[in-house]
Write a structure and sequence with these properties.
Layout lengths: L2 H16 L2 H20 L8 H21 L4 H5 L1 H18 L1 E3 L2 E6 L4 E2 L1 H19 L8 H19 L4 H18 L3 H20 L3 H10 L10 H13 L11 H4 L11 H33 L4 H25 L17 H19 L7
Antiparallel strand pairs: 1-2, 2-3
């Protein structure tokens, strides 16, 4: 055996021993729920989307494996701002030549599939903010003047995504930036000023919204409620969740979904289908899997070998956390319907691949606290 092959075998053994099997197990469990849920809803879908979802999971696995086992996550730190700029350009390209669907222009037509750059921007924001805050340190917390740089940069993708229009992802991108900054520490006075400023600009933000976005907020606030209008899908989503009871109606037996009362059971309201069929017990188990994934991601952050790895992991955990929170809020009518998917459970190529890239980067940080120490 040559010296080079011996080194390779040693590194493979080291990788296998340091591989984060808990992280992988949690992801496989959640993805399996997603496939089962799509298979159950196949009767009311135009095509068997569970088979397409499996293909997307396969594609996403390639993106998971690449950052997890080949590219050191510090590579992304080096090129963070370039990556941010490229994705921002793709968002501009969407507005110019993107494919329009249901009144929104969010996708680039690649011929064989449609690509949604706003999904990739979630990761770009986390990487850019992780680099910025890892290279700057403020004792006593960050003030508004200190935060002007990173949040001024964040306004670019927020503006472009809002023009698509995509209010949900616009808010999510802002929440991701705030999450990383909050972890670093923001002065209390700065928080108060931001809250007051947000209240002051709210009327202008309302004026800039599209009519259907205003309708969704009115529906959430139960203003001008119309039982057969936009409020209809949310009401039936709540009914579907409630009809599941403790243990659910059984796999493939959800009447609300089967009779078409809940639209998009494969996407925004995937949790409604799962809750009706699996009940409180099944829904609680799914949410506990998400909780375990988020807590494990924060554990990875706490054990990262450098500050960038910590901030990167916190931001990636925030992507999963906020998507789950907003989606569950939509389904239960605790939040307006803003089109945020449930990670690895809702159908969608761009969404699935993006989440698996997040998991790959988390695996990267986890594995490299043991391997190839600088």
């Amino acid at each position: 055996m040559t010296a080079s092959s011996s080194v390779r075998q040693s590194r493979l053994r080291s990788f296998a021993l340091s591989f984060d099997w808990v992280l992988l197990g949690l992801v496989l469990a959640i993805a399996s729920v997603g496939i089962l849920n799509l298979y159950s809803a196949a009767a009311v879908l135009p095509q068997p989307l569970h088979t397409v979802q499996i293909v997307w999971l396969g594609v996403g696995t390639l993106f998971f494996a690449l950052p997890a086992s080949i590219i050191d996550y510090r590579f992304f730190e080096r090129w963070a701002y370039l990556f941010f700029a490229v994705v921002s350009f793709l968002l501009l390209l969407v507005l110019l030549v993107g494919k329009e669907y249901n009144g929104s222009r969010r996708w680039i037509d690649l011929g064989f599939t449609h690509f949604q750059p706003s999904e990739l921007m979630k990761i770009a924001v986390v990487i850019a903010f992780a680099r910025y805050f890892s290279q700057h340190e403020k004792k006593g917390g960050w003030g508004l003047r200190d935060l002007a740089g990173p949040f001024g940069l964040l306004l670019i993708p927020m503006f472009l995504i809002f023009q698509e229009p995509d209010l949900g992802t616009t808010i999510l991108v802002l929440l991701l930036g705030v999450s990383v900054a909050w972890f670093e520490g923001i002065k209390r006075s700065s928080v108060i000023i931001v809250v007051l400023a947000s209240i002051a600009v709210a009327p202008f933000a309302w004026a800039g919204m599209k009519p259907y976005q205003k309708d969704r907020i009115k529906t959430f606030l139960q203003i001008e409620e119309d039982p057969y209008g936009r409020d209809w899908q949310v009401k039936n989503s709540v009914i579907a969740v409630g009809s599941g009871g403790l243990t659910g109606r059984g796999f493939g037996q959800g009447s609300q979904i089967r009779k078409g009362f809940v639209p998009e059971p494969e996407n925004d309201f995937a949790l409604s289908n799962w809750a009706e069929e699996q009940g409180f017990v099944g829904t609680s188990l799914l949410l506990l899997l998400y909780l375990a994934l988020i807590l494990w991601s924060l554990r990875i952050a706490s054990h990262a070998r450098d500050r960038f790895g910590t901030l990167l992991s916190v931001g990636l955990a925030a992507i999963i956390f906020w998507q789950v929170i907003v989606n569950v809020g939509m389904v239960l009518r605790w939040a307006p319907v803003v089109g945020i998917t449930l990670p690895l459970v809702s159908y969608g190529g761009s969404s699935v691949v993006t989440i698996l890239i997040c998991i790959g980067l988390l695996m990267n940080v986890s594995v490299r606290r043991h391997m190839y120490r600088a």
